Amino acid sequence: MIAPWSTAGTGQAGSVAAPRESADGEAQAGTTVDHLTETYQAHYRSLLGLAALLLDDTASCEDVVQEAFIRVHSARKRVRDPQKTLAYLRQTVVNLSRSTLRRRILGMKLLSKPMPDMASAEEGAYDRIERDELKKALRGLQRRQREVLVLRYFADMTESQVAEVLGLSLGSVKAYGSRGIAALRVAMEDPS
Q1: When you count CB atoms within 10 A of the terminal residue's CB, does the N or C end of the chain come out lower?
Q2: The CA-based dihedral angle spanning residues 145, 142, 48, 33, taken in that order and rounded to the nearest 10 degrees
Q3: Region Disordered: start and end of each range (predicted)?
Q4: Do residues 159 and 152 touch, judged by C-beta distance below 8 A?
């Protein structure tokens, strides 16, 4: 897997961000290209899974994750603490997924013919049906409830990490999470 900013195959080595100096002469280190490449290799799949829970097609998920890495690469000098690179990437994936959904909603409003919402007959395997039911139930939740549940249970983040990524208080994360789980239970039990 080659990082989207990699210079592999061009004969050039990837550059490492050199420490820069602030106005008062102190060295400030940004996230290096090497660290970002390692993060890409280690967390690409988990970030793709995060995007897949917020979006519904593989191509869009891959686009969102690639764009997130490119944006973090472009802004790597602003991520002063390399330990926060993954959190910054998760936040970027969530934000780009939101933007993708907003563009889709606008596109659907402009389309005269609605998109079919039923899966084809070839996709009728039992596990796929269960996954589709869960996705449908997740889409029925309020946006914040869905985001909290996806980050908490599918991205395996702690409540405090979710609060940081979404910019919410810890109490809000707990409230959205418990209300979201209750709504999911009702939606999954309803046969209609």
Answers
A1: C
A2: -70
A3: 1-30
A4: yes
